């Protein structure tokens, strides 16, 4: 197997320079030669996406281990921290170091004392309990985290129903063309930030749909982009977590290529987030 050095326009390449002191990070893609069954042509080399354990450590405290594509990891560290409520703003993250380890990657975040105290309190509440389905959550009261600020209204250019479908359709077309990892593997999700007219201005990719959105949110926060003046488009279904992350990031609209869940619709309605599903082939369904 060989590693693929695949740089992306407007983003860092497959490896993060921060990790050079610890050795190179795993590549985002790996070349394999599988056995094709029932196929007339001989097996050829193809690319598959890498999936790596990513440990998030805050001021030396281990918080979570996620499986993700080892690309845009500083964006992931910031976006995950914001959408999980560990940071109140990007300014709470003082520094992040990406360290390659024999069995994965460690993201070592240096955060403010206030955030460290919050994390320690959360760790104390979880002591002695088993793992759960939602990262960092040990009881039902922690699942639903309303945004600290109201979700902004749709930009004026998207408020008219006749303008919504053309903008969403353009976003999905441009998103499909801006996924180099997906084009190589067929197994990668992506999240895009779009202007009100649907122009895609930023894309992040990952094997996990939640990770792709976290990476996008982190990149937007680092760039200081006003999330009230656009919308997010994702190559997945619209689950509850995706809706909650978009709302917490102050996005007025989440557009998904596939279906929403009922909990996602209820959450979007409660937050005031516009939610569109089945955005494909020049059509869309608005659920909230």
From TrEMBL:
Its main location: cytoplasm. The active site is at 132 (cysteine persulfide intermediate). The keyword Metal-binding does not apply. GO terms for cellular component: cytoplasm. Keywords: Cytoplasm, Molybdenum cofactor biosynthesis, Transferase. SUPFAM superfamilies: Cytidine deaminase-like. It is found in: Cytoplasm. One of its GO terms (biological process) is Mo-molybdopterin cofactor biosynthetic process. Mo-bis(molybdopterin guanine dinucleotide) binds at residues 278-283. InterPro entries: Cytidine_deaminase-like (IPR016193), FdhD (IPR003786). It comes from the Bacteria. Gene3D superfamilies: 3.10.20.10, Cytidine Deaminase, domain 2. The keyword Lipoprotein does not apply. GO terms for molecular function: sulfur carrier activity; sulfurtransferase activity. NCBIfam families: fdhD_narQ. Required for formate dehydrogenase (FDH) activity. Acts as a sulfur carrier protein that transfers sulfur from IscS to the molybdenum cofactor prior to its insertion into FDH. Belongs to the FdhD family. This is Sulfur carrier protein FdhD.
């Amino acid at each position: 197997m060989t590693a693929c050095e695949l740089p992306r326009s407007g983003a860092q390449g497959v490896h993060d320079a921060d990790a050079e002191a610890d050795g190179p990070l795993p590549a985002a893609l790996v070349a394999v030669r599988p056995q094709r069954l029932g196929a007339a042509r001989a097996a050829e080399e193809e690319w598959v996406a890498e999936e790596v354990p990513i440990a998030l450590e805050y001021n030396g405290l281990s918080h979570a281990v996620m499986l993700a594509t080892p690309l845009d990891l500083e964006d992931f560290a910031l976006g995950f921290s914001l959408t999980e409520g560990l940071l109140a703003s990007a300014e709470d993250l003082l520094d992040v170091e990406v360290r390659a380890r024999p069995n994965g990657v460690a993201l070592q975040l240096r955060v403010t004392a206030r955030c460290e105290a919050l994390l320690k309190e959360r760790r104390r509440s979880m002591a002695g309990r088993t793992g759960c389905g939602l990262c960092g959550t040990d009881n039902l009261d922690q699942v639903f985290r309303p945004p600290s600020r109201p979700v902004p209204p749709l930009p004026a250019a998207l408020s008219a129903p006749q303008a919504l479908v053309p903008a969403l359709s353009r976003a999905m077309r441009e998103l499909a063309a801006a996924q180099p990892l997906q084009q190589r593997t067929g197994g990668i999700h992506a999240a895009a930030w779009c202007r009100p007219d649907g122009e895609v201005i930023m894309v992040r990719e990952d094997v996990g749909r939640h990770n792709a959105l976290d990476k996008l949110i982190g990149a937007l926060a680092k760039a200081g982009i006003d999330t009230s003046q656009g919308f997010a488009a994702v190559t997945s279904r619209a689950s509850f977590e995706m809706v909650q992350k978009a709302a917490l990031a102050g996005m007025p609209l989440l557009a998904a290529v596939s279906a929403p869940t009922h909990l996602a619709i209820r959450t979007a309605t409660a937050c005031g987030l516009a939610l569109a599903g089945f955005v494909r082939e020049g059509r869309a369904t608005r659920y909230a």
